[in-house]
Amino acid sequence: MSPFLDLPPLNAARFAAIEDRVAALLRTSSDVIVTQGEALLPLEGAIRGAARPGSTALNIVTGPYGQTFGGWLRDCGAEVVDLAVPYDTAVSAGQVAEALRAHPAVDFVSLVHAEAATGNTNPVAEIAAEVHRHGALLMLDAVASVGAEPLLTDAWGVDLCVIGGQKAMGGPAGVSAVAVSPRAWERIAANPAAPRRSYLSLLDWKERWTDAGRTALPHAPAQLEMLALEACLDRIDAEGLDTAVTRHRAAAAATRAGARALAPLAPYVHRDRDAAPVATTLRTPAGLDAADLAAAALRADPSVPLQAAGGTLATTVLRVNHYGPAATLDTVLATLTALAAALGSDPAPARERATEAWRSFAV
Q1: Ranges of CATH 3.90.1150.10 domains, the chain
Q2: Tens digit of pLDDT for each residue in 81-92?
Q3: What's the pTM?
């Protein structure tokens, strides 16, 4: 029998130790609950636990996940104020402060750190300061950003911080986690509509696992996913978190620099400071379908992490997924070469500019 199918049970002590390592990665002393499912599970659980009928939520929309959060918040009976900005930019702390002043009843704010789907990233530290000055609770989707950007959960005052293993961590999609601050627990416990006896219930985890001393797991763990998460943490520790963050930033800068030499392509997110380190989106000109261009590039090199964007951007925007093990100069150069082949262009200028940009980070 394969050794991967004949593993000893994952005991409670090891499960708890993995949670503690996730807490260290998130720079938090709050409770961390590892949820065995894709990150939409703790994201929905956090919203349904903290949002209640009669509450008012500020939902910051900088990409498709913000739209999803708005739907969940409304389904919970909350009054939702959407703060939407163009997907090719980022929201500013000033815009958030203005929205909070205009809606003093807001007591919950939902925000995505990095939007891999649109290639933008938001200034969480500055936004969190405005949210806490207002007195609201902050939920952060850090699924794409963890391991690729600084993530200081406690120092920034993030109350619900959700991560997943499948992006910069380089792991599976089937494991995720949420850090829950004490005041978030108070909010959830006081919500009569919070899920109970449900896979979405964070309170069930708190009562049956965290508050019970983490000595007996409330269910059989998804062992392979937990071991994969542990391996991701091992890899980040071995590389060093700061080095991993720099590597992702270098990959984004190199991709953007190279793409600017591949006319008629151009970065979709205009300002470098608004660009996410996990994925670079590229705007295609009118008449050049993004899906067709991606298909042509993949015929030139099927290994490159390239796809057309989703939703309304599917025909006009390409997405280069340089996260996790793909955040390397070799991957960036291969992607630019494949795009040049699809465009019928010389790849040399793009490769040269990308290499210069990468080397400026001294990775």
Answers
A1: 240-359
A2: 999 999 999 999
A3: 0.95
Query: Do residues 159 and 248 lie in contact, with contact meaning Cβ atoms separated by under 8 Å?
Result: no
Of 121, 65, 131, which is closest to residue 89 (Cα–Cα)? 121
* Residue spans of beta strands (DSSP E) within 49-166: 56-61, 79-84, 106-112, 114-115, 120-121, 137-141, 160-164
Contacts of residue 56, Cβ cutoff 8 Å, sequence gap at least 6: 78, 79, 80, 81, 103, 105, 106, 107, 108
Q: Which two tokens stand for residue 156?
A: 């920034």
Backbone conformation region of residue 362, classed left if phi is above 0, alpha if psi is from -120 to 50, else beta = left
Pairing of strands 137-141, 114-115: unpaired
d(CA 70, CA 46): 13
| Contact by Cβ (8 Å): 317, 161 | no
CATH number of 240-359: 3.90.1150.10
The answer to whether the CB of 169 falls within 8 A of the CB of 44 is no
Residue 335 β-bridge partners? none
Q: Give the CATH number of domain 3-237; options: 3.40.640.10, 3.30.428.10, 1.10.150.130, 3.40.50.2300.
A: 3.40.640.10
Task: Decide if 128 contacts 91 (C-beta within 8 A).
Answer: no
Helix (H, G, I), strand (E, B) or coil at 105: coil
Give the closest residue to 319 by CA, choosing from 118, 66, 61. Answer: 118
- Rounded to whole angstroms, what are the CA distances from 154 to 119, 135, 237, 242, 301? 25, 16, 20, 18, 43
Query: How far is residue 293's CA from residue 219's CA, in Å, rounded to a whole number?
Result: 46
At 135, is the secondary structure helix, strand, or coil? coil
Give 246-305 pLDDT, tens digit per residue: 999 999 999 999 999 998 999 999 999 999 999 999 999 888 999 999 999 999 999 999
Q: Is residue 264 reached through a cis peptide bond, with omega within 30 degrees of 0 on the bond before it? A: yes
User: Where do the CATH 3.40.640.10 domains begin and end in the chain?
Assistant: 3-237
